Structures are given as structure tokens and as C-alpha cells.
Automatic annotation (TrEMBL):
Matching Pfam families: Autoind_synth (PF00765)
EC number(s) reported in the record: 2.3.1.184
PANTHER family: ACYL-HOMOSERINE-LACTONE SYNTHASE, ISOVALERYL-HOMOSERINE LACTONE SYNTHASE
Family named by the database record: Belongs to the autoinducer synthase family.
UniProt-recorded name of the protein: Acyl-homoserine-lactone synthase
Organism: Sphingosinicella soli
Amino acid sequence: MIKFITAKTKSQHRALIDQMHQDRKRVFVDWLKWDLPVTGDKEIDQYDTDDAIYIIDVDAEGNHVASIRLLPCSVPTLMAEHFADMVQSPVPADDTAWEMTRLCANPNVKDKLAQWTGRKNITVAAIEFALMRDIKQLIFVTHSSWVPTILSVGWDIELLGLPRKDGADSIAAMRINVTPETLALIRRNWGVKESLLPAEEALSAVA
């Protein structure tokens, strides 16, 4: 099940938000060794603001399975402030482009299929929201090792510039061009037959 959380609804989902931040610390700080700010047992940064929207896949007990953070490019974003040198193709600094960051799966979920399903669900829900909000582009940074897998989906996606070294790996900035065809293709390729976005919650964010 997908939860769609905004500044207006965050207080209703405090335990779930805490789980998400705890899992982000486990994945990004403890496992990947990223140099990120930590508050207690949670990874929270300067982009976890009231402008952020969280799309979270939860299990039958309501626990965090996978999540992603969305931010409009009209406000400060991770890409604009830390990865601008990687972007050779212009990205609008307005609400027609949104950044996706902190895609995180719960490391305690041992069922890899459940983790993968959670990742797929939040990605599809993000595209559904983008279409509802008339967002034209979703931008993100990923490890270059993931690029072939991302491209293999067959959607309308492109590199924003050349990859750059990041420790032992390299990273790449990418853009999804959001269209009804993009959503139809990803649903078909990933076997998602119905809308995943909680319509009432998403519509309240659009208003």
C-alpha cells in the first residue's frame, strides 16, 4: 500500500516517517558510508522541509518497505546545490520539474521481491503524482551501475550530463520526461494494473 505524505499530513504518520528516517540512516550512513547529517538514529537533511513530499510503500502492518522524497525545483534541491556541475541539459527552476531523492528500501526486509516491488510501487506512484500535478520532468542522481537497469525499462529518460567519479563508483544525473505514455509503459513493463496513488491525499497536495 502506498502512503502519500505532505507537510499537512506528516503529523498523522509520525511513526512511519520515523521508520523511514531510521532506514535511511541504516542504508545511506551505516551501509553505504555516505557523509550525511544524523539526528540520533535518523538521517535527516536540510531538504527534509515542508516542501518535501514522501511516497512510502508500507506492508500489511503499516511498516516502511520503501520510500522516496520529492521536491519541486522551485526551491533549493540536492541536485541544484550539490550536483549542478553534472547537468549540461537545462532543468527548469520551477514547479514543472521535481527532484526525486533518498530512494530507500528497508534493509530489514529480507524478501528481495518485496523490496523490489516496493521500489517499483513508489516509482509508479511518483509518475502518477507528476501527471496529476502537471509536472513535466522528474530528475534524480543515481549510481552509474544502475543506469543500464533504469534504461532497460524503456521509458522516456535521458542523461542530463556525463557521469562523474564518486569514490569507487560513479554517479549520473538523469531526467524522466513525464507523459501519459511514460506511465502506461512503466505500468505495462512492471505489471502494475491499477493506480497506486491514494487519490484523496494526492489531490489535497495539488490543491
